[in-house]
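Q: For a teaching handout, I want to show students what a protein-ligand complex looks like in token form. Below are the inputs, and the small molecule is zinc ion. Please produce the holo structure.
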Amino acid sequence: MLIRRITKSYAFEAAHRLMHHRGACSNLHGHSYKVEVEVTGRLQREGPAEGMVLDFGDLSKVVRPLIEEFDHRLVLSHDDPLCELLSGKEGVALNVMSDVPTAENMAAYLAKRIQEKLNEESTREGMRYTVNGENRKAFNGESAVTKVTVWETSTSRATWELR
Ligand SMILES: [Zn+2]
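A: Here is the structure, written as tokens, with zinc ion included.
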């Protein structure tokens, strides 16, 4: 079986804080985040994505809107009192997470959502190809998101892995 892995990188800027952190991370501060998404699966045998696990462009159709949920936003935990204080205020774009907004939790959230969206989106126009008269999904369901790494700084990263 021709199993291959592909990885694509994305970046976003965001502010966050870790409410219960014992150091400076409990203050509002920002990072230039980098995200690496790995998809593992069989090589497609025909059509426009022949020889690929998944077209990088098709992966981006799914990942970019999720990255935009974080880009230039303030990412807070749902139980952070700042949510109520800042919600609806001009110049404040919030992303409220169900967990503490660590790189670990961002990686897990992104992995889950990317997999869900790959499954959903592949049934829609723009993520389907016609091959020999047959309508096929760009994402054939035989591939899976196997790793998502979120870099918070150039020396600190957290990885979610499918086990
Ligand atoms: Zn931080």
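A: Two things your students might notice: The chain has a mean pLDDT of 91. The chain has one domain: 3-71+103-161.
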